[in-house]
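Weekend entry, working from home. Most of the wet-lab plans are on hold until the incubator is repaired, so I used the time to fold the two sequences that have been sitting in the queue since the last round of cloning. Logging both here for the record. First:
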Amino acid sequence: MSVLYPIAATAEEALKTPKGRAERAREALALAGGAEVEFVRELTGPTFATREAAEAAWPDVVDREGAPAVQPEDRFCELMETIAPDPKGGRGQAEPTFAAGSRWPKPRRLLKTAWRLQVSYWKVVDPAALPKLPQARAARKSDDAQALDAKALRAMAHQPLQPVKPQQPLDIGLFEYSPPEAPHLTIPDE
């Protein structure tokens, strides 16, 4: 049996009250009522210092030693080890020192890790909620390019590319071309 992924708008909703469960995109589209869906994996819930603590907090959705196994169709969650945020805040990028024959200083502290739950699900995408941003290639040439903030730039970078003009059908071969003065002719190219 394969995994049945929940259909929801958020990871929390996927865990608690999904709209349904589907294995494939076409099934998810039908259960979502025709709304667009995309397959995503998102981290949710609190962070835990150890894997055992995370397993104890999510006993019904992840496998743990000595407990009954999660059914194959319910394996849409897994525990992920992530880098814990620095409580003091980041110090920025390290500067090279070029001291004692070494270019980089020794790290002052090791990065701490934390465990979080990762949920794989079919995310319902509301087309009205998507930002109507221009393509990055057009926005960078505009006069307002310097005024864009980091959030807008990040949103532009993550939106799908739109074609400048519709793609023309490829009706000639790789080593052929049509001259501009006679577009009805196809001439072989060497």
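Second, folded right after the first finished:
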Amino acid sequence: MSTPRTIGVIVGSLRRESFNRKVARAMVALAPPTLAPSLVEIGELTLYDQDLEGESTPKPWTELRQRVRVLDGLLFVTPEYNRGLPAVMKNVIDVGSRPHGHNVWRGKPAGVVSVTPGALGAMAAHHQLRQSLFAVGVAAMPAPEVFIANVATLLGPDGTLTDEKTGEFLRKYMQALAAWTERILADVGTTAGERR
């Protein structure tokens, strides 16, 4: 069997017990053996400020860029705040896209999932995230789309996913992400190992 593709999972909520983090963990567990997903923490990233580039570049920025650069693909899981994308999610995209000419996102295959306890599936944040990812050259999988609404009803008291139908849908989504990752990497003719 070939080496599994490394997938960085980026969660747009910093809350330790966030619904998005719980769904992201469930998706990691549902991934096929061809994927090796792991969480990429973004809580220590300060807001992007170009004046900090150079000798005083914040260490969390450098670590984030190095981590993403060697990944084969990505999975973004986002909530929606006030009909928009959370600031931490937009910030991680900005940090990874700079400085000019050193965009670590370009060419990466990715999945986009939005999660909310509300009824609309965080659709506004989902589409804003896709727009930003397009701008930095991420190849976001167009379908299937995942808008998880009423998420509190899908989780047990310990935060694990208990709804079988949702679990099966997310399992199939992770399989689709694996196929998408292979397709995009074949098109660009590169792997994480070749980018190191």
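Plan for Monday: verify the second prediction. The domain at 5-191 is CATH 3.40.50.360 (Rossmann fold).
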